[in-house]
Design goal:
The chain is mainly alpha-helical. The radius of gyration is 20 Å and the shape is extended. α3 runs antiparallel to α4. It is built from four helices and no strands.
């Protein structure tokens, strides 16, 4: 029986980081599946966006930050609503399969 050795994973760092970005963060492999891939992508990144938006809304409610007032606030809430619709779309597509 041959001795098992750990695989060297410190080589090709730039290739590995590129794979992490494209396949992990941007979900390149998942997006190859037409309907389900887009639904998964919208749910995954929509959930991240909605979680971060809750932090921004918490800051808006508890602190006075001039940059978060006025037109920014209106557009921000519009984008949050649209992202919420994308998450619901993704959930509907995945529930229907």
């Amino acid at each position: 029986m041959a001795k098992l050795r750990p695989e060297p994973r410190s080589d090709q760092t730039s290739l590995r980081l590129r794979g992490l970005l494209l396949d992990g963060a941007l979900q390149r492999r998942i997006l190859r599946r037409s309907g389900r891939g887009v639904a998964h992508f919208s749910m995954a990144w929509g959930t991240v966006w909605l979680a971060l938006s809750m932090v921004v809304i918490g800051v808006q409610e508890n602190f006075t930050v001039p940059a978060l007032m006025g037109d920014f606030n209106q557009y921000f809430h519009l984008v949050v609503d649209l992202v919420g619709l994308a998450v619901l779309f993704g959930a509907g597509v995945l529930a229907g399969r």
